[in-house]
Automatic annotation (TrEMBL):
Protein name, as recorded: Poly(A) polymerase I
Basic residues: bias regions: 432-443
Domain tRNA nucleotidyltransferase/poly(A) polymerase RNA and SrmB- binding: 209-268
Compositional bias segments (type: Gly residues): 447-465
Active site: D74, D76, D150
Family: Belongs to the tRNA nucleotidyltransferase/poly(A) polymerase family.
Pfam families: PolyA_pol, PolyA_pol_arg_C, PolyA_pol_RNAbd
NCBIfam families: pcnB (TIGR01942)
Top EC class for this record: transferase
Organism name: Duganella aceris
Function: Adds poly(A) tail to the 3' end of many RNAs, which usually targets these RNAs for decay. Plays a significant role in the global control of gene expression, through influencing the rate of transcript degradation, and in the general RNA quality control.
Length: 465
């Protein structure tokens, strides 16, 4: 009311007195969204809800992407129907979530998240001692729901039926100016949910948007609050960050915002180890290239890459202390995985994929007898081989070994026998050879692994989850 009055008196459109209780409504000519970028299932969900008498809109990242002319990778729907009411309208619908209840509506493999408009009364919501909201299932109006969203560009609603965009917080303007602006008072919003700081970094890097100064200012000071967030949530957000197609830019931005330090042990390791920088850069470039090419990326491969140089360091130390090569590698892997699980909640499957990839590495050194054939049959051979190529491309080991394995992998039986007969044996049998000499130029095989030219999913484990 008061804000409205001030605006009337001043006749101003100043953002600080923006009226956020009623939306700016934009028709197709004003927003320019191409309806062909919408998924049929998103329209199916909104129209089913609307036919049952509810309001329903595409919301969040999908509207942002539609306005940017990008095909959204998934669609979230917001409605005034309660989760129970939504569930009743669809054959395969499941209520999930504790902190925020949402409904997953499935059509075949396609999953849509349907959320009921949230209320703004967070005062009574249960919080932890730092002010982080623990549970919040109070429903509200669309205007209240918009206030609760993180950024202005993520708080717009699109109704496929009349092709209108409802914009409560100047999101369209911010999209045009390529500005990332948090809704409300930044400190308060980060306190309620510190993960939003990671989201600032992800969206700024992924969309190449500028962080509005007031949105960015508190992050360096408030970064430690992320320590209180359950590890599984941080992990989910980190995975989104690493799989955004701009992984390297995101990690650099995390560092710039002071978010990496003491926050996730993983990032300390990744961003502050000079030896691993080349390897990690190649691994992340390869991941980004795969995402852009629409290929799957396995989290196990990704995390195995990010932590490889930490494993290498410990592996070397254990061997220096007298352990045999293979047990030393297992000990190193245990150490690294243990130190990461507490904060990062590495899921068991991911941890075991990482271990598989790492422990395959010394086996690539054995190129006599039946060993190479046996390794080829390993369930995760492809991931281990791609990983080997990254090690070659980064100069950690001689490119020759990668070339040999490419020839062996691609060759017929006669070629394979030939290769085994002429294999260069490592100087110390079974030892991990760490040649640090000048790297020979990029060659077929080695370069491919580093740029994502390798076609099969890493390890053929069927993708991201
Ligand atoms: P992406 O395209 O990467 O999925 P997105 O914006 O859709 O981006 P999601 O994590 O899928 O991101 O979240 C969907 C929407 O839910 C967001 O656009 C935002 O409106 C809201 N949202 C998600 N997380 C938060 C949060 N921590 N605080 C406030 N709003 C959030
Ligand atoms: Mg999304």
């Amino acid at each position: 009311m008061i804000k409205k009055l001030i605006r009337k008196i001043l006749g101003t459109k100043d953002k600080s007195v923006r009226d956020t209780s009623t939306p700016v409504v934009l028709g197709p000519d004003a927003h320019g969204i191409d309806p062909r970028l919408l998924s049929n299932n998103a329209v199916r969900v909104t129209s089913t809800l609307q036919e049952a008498g509810f309001e329903a809109f595409v919301v969040g990242g999908a509207v942002r992407d539609l306005l940017l002319g990008v095909k959204p990778k998934d669609f979230d729907i917001a409605t005034n129907a309660t989760p129970e009411q939504v569930k009743r309208l669809f054959r395969r619908a499941f209520i999930i979530g504790k902190r925020f209840q949402i409904v997953h509506v499935m059509f075949g493999q396609d999953l849509l998240e349907v959320t009921t408009f949230r209320g703004t009364t967070l005062d009574n919501a249960p919080k932890d001692e730092h002010g982080r909201v623990l549970r919040d299932n109070t429903f509200g109006s669309q205007a209240e729901d918009a206030v609760r969203r993180d950024f202005t560009i993520n708080a717009m609603y699109y109704n496929p039926a009349n092709e209108q965009v409802l914009d409560y917080h100047g999101g369209v303007e911010d999209i045009r100016a390529r500005t990332l602006r948090i809704i409300g008072q930044p400190e308060a919003r980060y306190r309620e949910d510190p993960v939003r700081m990671l989201r600032v970094v992800r969206f700024a890097a992924k969309l190449k948007f500028t962080i509005e100064p007031a949105t960015g200012a508190p992050i360096a000071i408030m970064a430690p609050l992320i320590n209180n967030v359950p590890a599984a949530r941080v992990f989910d957000e980190m995975l989104k960050l690493l799989m955004s197609g701009q992984a390297l830019a995101c990690l650099q931005q995390l560092r710039k915002e002071g978010l990496h330090h003491g926050l996730l042990p993983l990032l300390d390791v990744v961003l502050e180890q000079p030896l691993g920088v080349k390897f990690v850069t190649l691994a992340l470039d390869s991941t980004d290239a795969r995402i852009h090419a629409g290929k799957t990326v396995s989290p196990g491969f990704l995390f195995a890459s990010l932590l490889w140089h930490q494993v290498l360091e410990k592996w070397t130390a254990y061997r220096a202390a007298g352990e045999q090569t293979i047990p030393a590698l297992h000990l190193a892997a245990d150490d690294v995985l243990d130190s990461q699980t507490e904060k990062l909640a590495l899921q068991r499957k991911i941890g075991s994929d990482m271990r598989d990839i790492w422990s395959m590495q010394p086996r690539f050194e054995r190129r006599t007898g039946k060993s190479p054939h046996k390794l080829l049959e390993h369930l995760r051979f492809r991931a281990g081989y791609d990983f080997l190529l990254l090690r070659c491309a980064s100069g950690e080991i001689d490119a020759e070994i990668g070339e040999w394995w490419t020839a062996f992998y691609e060759g017929d039986e006669a070629t394979r026998e030939d290769l085994i007969a002429t294999a260069n044996q490592p100087a110390a049998a079974g030892g991990a050879k760490r040649k640090r000499g000048p790297r020979r130029g990029p060659r077929k095989g080695t370069g491919d692994g580093a740029t994502g030219g390798v076609d099969a999913g890493h390890g053929g484990d069927g993708g991201a989850d």
